[in-house]
Every structure is written in C-alpha cells, then in structure tokens.
C-alpha cells in the first residue's frame, strides 16, 4: 500500500535504475557485513515507505526461516545466513518500486527510456493486471465459501473451483481491454503527448547521491575491508 513520502516523489526512472543496480550488486556480494548494510537499508526504506500487511509479513518471515533451516542442513549456518540475506536483498527492491511508484509515473519512466509504444502498453497492462488477478481470485474463493467449498483446504478443487474460473475471467478481461482500445482508436504508431513530463529535481539528486554513497560503503566492505 502506497504512502505519500520522500520515495514516492523520486524520479521513477531513477528508481528503476537504482533497483537494477541493487539486484546486480546483491548477486556479487559474499561478505556478511556488506550484505547486512544493504539489507538494513532496504528494510528501513520498506518500513518507512510502505504500509506493511502483518499477515503477509509473517508468511514471508516463516518462509525465510524455513529457507535458512534447509540451507543450514545442506551446507552450514554461515552460508545459510549469507544466502538468506542475499535473497532478501534481491526480493526487497521490487515491492519498494511497486509500492512507491504509481502506474502513471511508471508509464512516463518507460516512455522517457524511449521504448516502443507497444512495449509500454504491454508493460502497463501487465502492471495493472496483477492486482486484478488477485481481486478476481479472492472473489472466486469467496464464492466457493458461499457454496460450502473451502478451496484452501481442498487441493482437488483448485483446478475446477479456482483455476478454471480464473482463466475465464482473464480471457474476458483481455477481450474487454481489446474492445476498449479499438473503440478509442488506439494506434501504437501514433505520437504520444505528455502533460507531466519527467523532470530532474533536487530530491532526485539527494536520492542518487545517497544511493551512490551506500553502494560505495557496500563495495568497500566487500572488496577492500
């Protein structure tokens, strides 16, 4: 859930570049101090910028504990901790970007990158489609509850009670989007206008310098110290 804060006002293209950089750096790190600095920074940003669902947070924590237990059993505790921290560093940038960037800002960022219009449309539809799938799945589960079927506790009902209705809803949604684009005269080759083009602000400079400083500290701990 998105809150109005410093991170939501940052240039979305800059946030995308920083997220990609974090993913690349996280894959290269092997020192526990360096990974810890990166993870602590990301967790702090997540807690400050996003309203966290405690139930989902608990599920993720349990999954990480299970992952650590299996990793410790297969290797050793030190390797398990490093692997878990690296996994957290890889996973956290995505919810941070998604929760602090509105769909319109994402479109402007992709357009600023000079990507083809059909790619911009495809990415935008996918971005918007993810919460739609979640909403439709929840409606289907609630409809099954009203019929006395608990899909979560009856795996045999997953295909007929959840997957099939969800597939039909996805197809119907795709048809609605196609009809909507055609009736509005959408042309992927037509030039696009932008009433709110991206502009570099002082906040972007502060964010970029801060991100570079953190990456410098992480790199120093990993390859110099």
UniProtKB/TrEMBL annotation:
What InterPro entries does the annotation carry?
Answer: ABC/ECF_trnsptr_transmembrane, ECF_transporter_component
What keywords were assigned to this record?
Cell membrane, Membrane, Transmembrane, Transmembrane helix
Intracellular or extracellular location(s): Membrane
| GO cellular component annotations of the record | plasma membrane
**Where mainly located?**
membrane
Instruction: State which residue ranges cross the membrane.
Output: 12-28, 34-50, 57-74, 112-130, 205-224
What is the protein's membrane topology class?
Answer: Multi-pass membrane protein
Give the protein name, as stated in the record: Cobalt ABC transporter permease
Organism name = Chlorogloeopsis fritschii PCC 6912
